[in-house]
Amino acid sequence: MRANLTVPEVKRFRRLGRLCAQAMEATMRAVRPGQSEHRIAAKLSNETGKRGIQAIVNLVATDERIFSFRHPLPTDKKLERYAMLVLCGRRWGLVCSLTRLIHFGRLPSDLKEKAKAVAKVDAAFIANTQPGQRLGDIFKRGMEVYAEADYPDEWQYHHQGGLAGYEPREIVATSYSEEVVSVGQVYAWNPSITGTKSEDTILVTEHGYEILTAMNDWPTIQVHIDGQTLLRPAILERN
Q: For an engineered disulfide with 121, which of 109, 113, 191, 202 has Cβ 3.0 to 4.6 Å away?
């Protein structure tokens, strides 16, 4: 009942998605080398808080820590080149989730390839999140795309996301999930490949998916999969 949203709840979720995206983008634009993970997390907390949002999950990792931890608590470590920020923001009881990454200097080719691969997995999850689809089948399609991208085991190191609502995930998807997608539900998929991750919150509508946490000025990766073309967030590169 928490996940099958009413019309007023959908309106609130849309606004929550926009506010979380604004908070994340404002934080990412302010990130600089030399800042500690704690300082970056404090900035994200401030940007969410002044928008009336509680950051119930506020995760930051920089540089080598991104390759070691997929759900990283911030530390005193200072940013050198690469940062990952993860936010689950709550308002009106609802919870919206998203992840963004930023790299200072030229992005290494291996990292760029991983980013493309994880974007493809994320796109497969989203493209198949359609009314009437069984959650377990969507999960299996994501596993197939991991394998097609030559990363068949990466899904085992962190959950892949699932049905959202009044918790970050009301249901974490597995290949055995029997729940069926319906209009008015919200999903947050979060596939990861060591050193990269892709996550947004989407609304299921009668006409397809709607990305609630999209950022107009954020770089994207165009993915063609399962008869659809999707834009997924790329790693922001700065000098």
A: 191
Is 1 part of a structural domain of the chain? Answer: no
Give the distance from CA 27 to its chain's centroid.
16
State how far Cα 17 lies from the chain centre.
12
> What's the whole-model pTM score?
0.97
Q: Is residue 219's pLDDT more than 90?
A: yes
Would residue 2 count as lying in a domain? no
Query: What does the pLDDT average to over 7-20?
Result: 98
Which residues neighbour 56 within 8 Å (Cβ) at sequence distance 6 or greater? Answer: 88, 89, 90, 95, 168
Helices 135-148 & 109-127, crossing angle to 10 degrees? Answer: 150
Contacts of 229 (CB under 8 A, 6+ apart): 222, 223
User: Does 127 reside within a domain?
Assistant: yes
Please check whether residue 112 lies inside any domain of the structure: yes
Measured distance CA(14)–CA(24) in Å, rounded: 16
Contact yes or no for 142/159 (Cβ under 8 A): no
Q: How confident is the model at residue 1 (pLDDT cuts 50, 70, 90)?
A: confident
- pLDDT tens for 149-201 read 999 999 999 999 999 999 999 999 999 999 999 999 999 999 999 999 999 99
Give CA–CA dist 87/97, Å, rounded. 6
> Which of 165, 186, 193, 162 lies closest to 175 in space, CA to CA?
162
- The answer to whether the beta carbons of residues 63 and 84 sit under 8 Å apart is no
Read off the CATH number of the domain in which 171 is found.
3.90.230.10
Domain assignment of residue 59, given as a range: 7-238
